[in-house]
Design goal:
mainly alpha, elongated, Protein of uncharacterized function (DUF2508), 0% strand, single chain, 3 helices, DUF2508
Length: 86
């Protein structure tokens, strides 16, 4: 009636899988940023920019963790931290 369509809802398990994959990637990026921060302080790069990039990656990671906690997601986090170098 009146041409209003219902939105299709994403399957919760699919969303949970996307979220756990996102957490794994965010954790990897955060750890990589911390290592890069330590290495870049020895160069001529602006330390404020380096710290800002690390802070951004940290906030992304913790945002996703809060979302997972709110949804009561349990995952095999020990495998989430293993990430091959590309």
């Amino acid at each position: 009636m009146f041409g209003i369509k219902k939105k299709k809802r994403l399957d919760p398990t699919v969303y949970d899988n996307y979220l756990t994959d996102g957490i794994a990637n965010a954790k990897y990026n955060f750890e990589k940023a911390k290592l890069s921060e330590a290495a870049m302080f020895e160069s001529d790069a602006d330390p404020r920019m380096i710290k800002a990039q690390t802070a951004i990656e940290k906030q992304k990671y913790f945002f996703l963790l809060r979302a997972a906690r709110k949804r009561d997601i349990t995952a095999s986090w020990h495998t989430a931290f293993i990430h091959p170098e590309m």
